[in-house]
Design brief:
Distance between the termini: 21 Å
Helix content: over 70%
Number of domains: 1
Number of strands: 0
Shape: globular
Order of helices and strands: HHHHHHHHHHHHHHHH
């Protein structure tokens, strides 16, 4: 199967699976918020923040580094993945044992402390399947990963519904994530056998070289955690569980949509890594198309959220989370920035500039923590939302500047003005009919945007056919000398 068609197929299957997974995740949140209330959901969100903490601490840069290395021509995939997998398993087990010590010093209830241990156990499985994602990225088979995540979400939702119906304890709600991760790991591990002979490898000289080169990415993971999740933990310590719950109902919307830029970047990352130095033409072509896709997605996302946030929050959290609508309107700008920071960060890592990116993320983390410590005690979750937005905007702009300065790449996307005008028409439509039915407005406003894109020819037919036609596909497959 040719490269571009495999990409198109992966995007289609992954998108459908991810959309369904997102719907299931939001449905799960709906059951949890209604069952636990503001305080209980605040405790739930606090525990999930520790999952992000465990992921960051044990990351070690293994996922992105191993994906980059196996994408290089002539790479020994079995050796690279065997050592990376062994390192990841060991680090996740250390984290699991560390969680038992950590809970002794946490200022939380016994229920929350038990939840942290359960989350640490689920992390052992999630870290295992995350490191294997690189194999599927290299072989353009991320559809399998998306399907495994979808089935895991189905299992999680089933456990949550069962817990709600039988009025089971808070720990069962947390354990639903453990079942999710277990199912996803088993499926991904089984499917990975088609592409790699995975086994434990303990080549310590290789580990040393591996970690020497990957540690900046690992440090970045910790830094990203600091500015992406520390606000929830600080809220849980400084403010009440109810305020944590209000903030995180809106934040969950951001988290469950931010999969999309990460998914697209994940699909193009091996190709960017392969061509960024060897074939500038192919690199610029796929990078520019990705950038335009992000603009097409971000415009209606911002417009729709600004007008429909009240209905969206009610759909997810119910009547008790009205305050979350304002938080969501602020966070949607952070979400928009995440699209472009994902894009630029991937280019920097592919271009071996992860150390410079680390400085950008470190500056963002210092600002985020400092600002949160100053303003959360005064303005609570509103401060956390505004600081998150400012942090993400800084990362997107700074990483974009680094890409231009170090690699000489500037995104070039035609007809951006037409895309923005289509978004303006969508906004006018939503303003005029703002008192209408939430579901009808959501669907009809999307149609207005799509029709405007088509009428003003913001996306040329040739841009689509260049991806799916044989002529366009061959451009990526030509030897370097022919391009």
């Amino acid at each position: 199967m040719v490269i571009a068609r495999k990409i198109a197929y992966n995007v289609l299957v992954s998108s459908i699976s991810k959309i369904l997974s997102t719907a299931l995740a939001l449905a799960s949140i709906g059951f949890i918020t209604r069952y636990l209330g503001k305080e209980g959901f605040g405790d739930y969100a606090t525990i999930l923040a520790f999952l992000s903490f465990f992921s960051a601490v044990s990351d070690l840069g293994l996922y992105q580094f191993s994906t980059r290395e196996i994408s290089r021509p002539g790479a020994n995939v079995n050796e690279i993945m065997g050592n990376a997998f062994s390192l990841r398993v060991i680090s996740s087990l250390v984290i699991f044992l560390f969680s038992f010590v950590l809970i002794l010093f946490l200022p939380y209830s016994q229920e929350v402390k038990y939840g942290v241990v359960i989350i640490a156990a689920s992390f052992v499985f999630s870290s295992g399947y995350q490191i294997l994602n690189g194999v599927f990225q290299k072989n353009l088979a991320m559809d399998k990963v998306a399907v495994s995540e979808l089935l895991g979400k189905i299992v999680q939702l089933a456990v949550i519904i069962l817990a709600v119906k039988l009025k089971l304890s808070f720990s069962w709600i947390i354990a639903s994530l453990l079942f999710n991760m277990l199912v996803s790991f088993i499926l991904v591990y089984f499917w990975s056998k088609k592409y790699v002979k995975l086994g434990f490898r303990f080549d310590f000289s290789y580990w040393k070289r591996f970690l020497t080169e990957s540690y900046p990415i690992g440090v970045m993971a910790i830094v990203v955690f600091i500015y992406f999740k520390i606000d929830t933990i600080l809220l849980s310590i400084i403010k009440s569980s109810a305020e944590v719950g209000i903030y995180n109902v809106a934040y969950k919307v951001l988290e469950n949509i931010s999969f999309f830029p990460a998914m697209i970047v994940g699909l193009i990352f091996p190709i960017i890594s392969e061509h960024i130095f060897s074939n500038k033409g192919n690199f610029s072509d796929i990078a520019n198309k990705t950038f335009k896709v992000f603009i097409l997605l971000v415009v209606p996302l911002i417009v729709g959220t600004l007008f429909l946030s009240n209905g969206l929050i009610y759909l997810i959290g119910g009547a008790g989370f009205d305050e979350s609508a304002l938080v969501l309107r602020i966070l949607v700008f952070a979400l928009a920035a995440i699209f472009f920071s994902n894009f630029f960060n991937a280019i920097l890592v592919a271009g071996n500039l992860q150390k410079k990116l680390m400085f950008v993320l470190s500056a963002a983390a210092i600002f985020n923590v400092s600002a949160n410590l100053i303003f959360i005690p005064i303005f609570s979750y509103i401060a956390a939302a505004i600081i998150s937005m400012a942090t993400e905007l800084f990362v997107a702009l700074a990483s974009g500047y680094l890409v231009f300065k170090q690699l000489g790449y500037v995104p070039k996307s035609e007809k951006v003005g037409r895309i923005l005008f289509s978004g303006l028409l969508m906004a006018i439509y939503l303003f005029i009919f703002r008192h209408g039915n939430f579901y009808f407005l959501g669907f009809s406003s999307a149609i207005v945007y799509i029709l405007a894109i088509w009428m003003f020819q913001a996306v040329e037919t040739s841009e689509i056919t260049s991806i799916i036609s044989k002529e366009g596909i061959k451009e990526y497959e030509k030897p370097i000398s022919e391009n």
